[in-house]
Protein: NADH dehydrogenase [ubiquinone] 1 alpha subcomplex subunit 13
Organism: Penicillium desertorum
Amino acid sequence: MTCVAALITVQTSRDPPDPTSPIVTAAPRYPSKPFTRSLPSQCLRICPQRGGYAQVQYKRNIPARGFKPAYYMIGMHVIMAYGFYKYFHGVREQRELAREKMWSRLHLTPLLQAEEDRDQVRRHYADKAREKELLGTDAKVYNSDRFIRPTFAYTPTNLTQ
């Protein structure tokens, strides 16, 4: 440990002042006399006792709360790994459900189309019967023997239960 010297002197020599000197000088008593720095004959030194000063207790002896930071990091990574695991399995399940939905629609399309065709045929024969009842003849509207799907549907104005 180094000793810091605090020196207080009044200097009267005509030597130029040394800017690196650790000497602290007081103001001169008479301003007419030149004021310079030089080594004094007597110094007042402020140094520690032999064996040094006693240790200063600046830290409280409180036990650390919680776990070590490494345990928190490990726990965080375990939780994140579990989350990623569940997320990727959920994405895989959603993809499988979407694929199953697409294939079920593909396989149900012919069944739904056949049901719609039966409904169209039933409506067509009902319209033909209504025309024959109203007009009395089976007149063709189009100049073709091909079946043409109707573009509009008749809806009754009054419904009977």
Observations:
- The chain has two domains: 1-48, 70-137.
- Strands lie at 4-5, 8-9, 24-25, 45-46.
